[in-house]
Batch of 2 targets.
Target 1
Amino acid sequence: MRIPLGRGGSSPLWSNWARSARCAPARLVRAAQEQDIVDAIGYAKSRGLRLRAAGTGHSFNPIATTDGLLLDMTGYNGIVALDPTTPSVTVRGGTLLRELNWALDKAGLALSNMGTLEEQTIAGAISTGNHGSGLHHAPFSGHVLGLTLVTADGSVRSCGPDHEPDLFRAAVTSLGALGVISTVTLRCVPKFNLRVTEGSRPLDSILEDIEAYAGSAEHATFSLKGWSDNASTLKLEPTDAPVSPDAARLRRANTLGEVRCATAGLAGRVDQRFVQRFMTAQVGGDSGPADYVDVSYNAFTFPQPVKFLSLEYALSLDAATEAVRHVHDDVKRFGLRTPYSITVRFSTGDDYLLSPAQGRTTAYVNITVPRTVAYTELLRVFEAALRDHHGRPHWGKAHTATAATVADLYPGWKEFQDVRAELDPDGMFSSDYVRRVLGSTRGASL
Ligand SMILES: Cc1cc2nc3c(=O)[nH]c(=O)nc-3n(C[C@H](O)[C@H](O)[C@H](O)COP(=O)(O)OP(=O)(O)OC[C@H]3O[C@@H](n4cnc5c(N)ncnc54)[C@H](O)[C@@H]3O)c2cc1C
């Protein structure tokens, strides 16, 4: 049977980046233009299939999986319009952040903030509530000035703060549950360099006044190992200084750090004591804490080829001190060591109904572990502690939250469900994951 859509065909297995979620969709279709999205929705509807859009699969959980029609958005990419006066850029939903960064750079522009990854799609980033760090910066959603969404009836709806604002508040961070994001318009800033400064200090000295630490640089982060009471600090500050000659090498050191963690994880399978020994040993070529200048998007991000699992919760900044002590104590006590760090980042609140940062200045607390079953229990212990502090799960990371555990944490939960019931009455964009975290669409037949 011909699928009247872009390129496509019957499906191979699809899996996410971490290989922690897989599916065998009834159909895998690659969108190359907006009409392909409209056609895919029409096709899925006519066959009684559910549909999920997929970006690059950089979410750690099955959020993008389906047994229905999987719409691969990565071929639907590129710049639609760039307005240097606003400045702003409109991109297709499947555009990678990396591609966007390069295009903006050429135009003398940049995004003001981002996380550590630039291999994911713009639509995937906003749909899962991506963020970087910065007490005075919103999560990635804060760049969004408007978007267009193809809904279950095949119509293309545009929305922004001044046009269909209720739809906009629901759609920016919507887990792919309201429709397929076709284009996104993002606010930009003139391109800039960042000074990257690493350091180390006692954890207690940060937790004495965590807000002061968070505000001590434009983009401040700290991280902890389970066996140490010292925190590693990372501060990024805008600067007029030129890019350092050794910037590329120092950026690569982050990648090598992850290779070292993965190797320590393997050694830990033989004997757990090797993890800490391997991570604390002085290695030839260690150049100590870095201090260098790089172009903003290279300073924010680094290549991350080594696979791992991450779980992250967004907490009110007021709750962060207690929560960090709680998880650090739990991780210290836990028999199994993870070679990776617990990482704490910050953002302002935003006003998107399902954004983990909705309505509160936020501290994000993340733990990363090797991808082996042995670490599942550590993730659960960590997650339980963060839930005690009213944490909201990062929608794209490895969590076990359900609609029952998260609904009360979102004041706009009912409003979101009303929009969902109106846009997707039959549950076309639902899936096992979506039903778990959002419940069924009211009256859904799929
Ligand atoms: C190595 C690594 C580093 C990471 N670093 C960070 C970090 O620093 N900060 C952070 O916040 N997160 C981070 N993450 C999490 C990750 O960035 C997000 O979950 C990711 O952005 C999702 O983008 P994606 O393109 O991979 O989307 P996918 O994982 O493929 O999909 C995610 C969701 O988006 C939906 N979606 C995708 N495209 C569309 C569309 N066009 N329309 C509607 N819905 C769509 C899917 O249906 C699904 O619900 C990291 C993940 C990895 C693996």
Target 2
Amino acid sequence: MTATLTHSVGIPESEYLALRDRIFEAIWSELDPLERRIEDEEQVPHDIVMPILARIGALGLLVPREYGGSGLSIAQYLPIIAEFAKVQGGLRVIVHVHNSFAHALSEIGNEQQKAAVLPGAATGRNSVAFALTEPGFGTGADLGSTAVRDGDDYVITGEKWLITNSDIASHFIVFAKTTDREVSAFLVPRDTEGLSIAALPETMGCKGTEHGRVTLDAVRVPAAALVGAEGQGNEHLERALEISRVFIAASSLGTSERALELSIAHAKSRVTFGKPIGTRQAVQRYLAEMATDVYALRGILADAARKWDAGERIPAEASMCKLFGLEAVGRVTDRALLVHGGIGYTRAHPIERLYRDARLNWLEEGTPTIQYLVAAGRLLDGYAFSDAFEISHRP
Ligand SMILES: Cc1cc2nc3c(=O)[nH]c(=O)nc-3n(C[C@H](O)[C@H](O)[C@H](O)COP(=O)(O)OP(=O)(O)OC[C@H]3O[C@@H](n4cnc5c(N)ncnc54)[C@H](O)[C@@H]3O)c2cc1C
């Protein structure tokens, strides 16, 4: 049986639709036109983008209302992050990381940390980044960073890399070992002495955002910087990544939907041997397979959101969503490229960018092997998916 928690029930439908429509309108009229510039310069123009995101309310979507955010439920948030995944990928990454880790802090932070950071996160004055991955160690709890208690402080030493939004983050949730076996999480402001940030090389897709190297050289923070209790880092890690994996799956959905829409349009307009290619059975098969992936992904995302919003923990479902999502968007963008033929491989067409952007979904919030581990671990612990059978018996 999964634990029951208090999760946001969301906002009234009319208010939500007004917010969603405002964001969708800005995505297509103000942000999408920046695609060529971002791809050419490999840099998101933050001076233009951040004020737009703040104005339309895209930065406080998951910040609880008492801290000035919109307090959306997960079912309300997923279509919005999916829409961002249709346009230039760097924009989606900024919005995803900003919302996801403000949301994590709202769940795992103490009152003082939430009051200090979340109102600013809702307006874009603050931004929380997640500093877990290390160059010299493995994934998750395999860390070389240490936090040593010294009187009323902790002294953190270590090296993180691939930390998204490292150029704009005001705070980092840093994971470090407090004993050989225990991991703890700390909320570390960017300007803390000893914390330095260096850029890493540009990425294959989702261009224009920074995923930097964060060095912690004897960074001294007060004990109040601990997120939760000492030694609870693994628990926090799982908690933060769980729902974030669903957000990555929703990003896979958005990218897949856009690739499908473009492919349907191309299949109707591209004529070979005197007929639109969409009349050929082989091309129809591609389209039908793409739509099947989109349909299935929508279904599992709706189920995961429903469970989470009802207060359940969903580690297995979240990992399965993330896993299926990356496989689905992989297949869909492969087929989209085939439907488009050679022109889809050129920068003249958004398919080329969608294809590259989608490949980040393999890595964010853990690789496939980590998702196998989490999902299978739950199954071997006796977790049963009885829900599916219950649905078929409901009137
Ligand atoms: C653009 C970008 C943004 C990112 N943003 C962030 C961020 O904001 N914060 C952050 O903390 N991290 C971030 N990451 C890091 C990302 O989460 C990791 O790259 C990812 O989890 C894989 O870890 P790794 O790079 O250390 O790969 P490795 O751990 O070196 O894995 C290499 C391969 O080995 C497999 N493998 C490794 N260990 C095991 C094992 N024990 N069992 C089975 N298979 C294993 C992996 O699945 C993978 O296939 C980002 C990465 C990228 C590319």
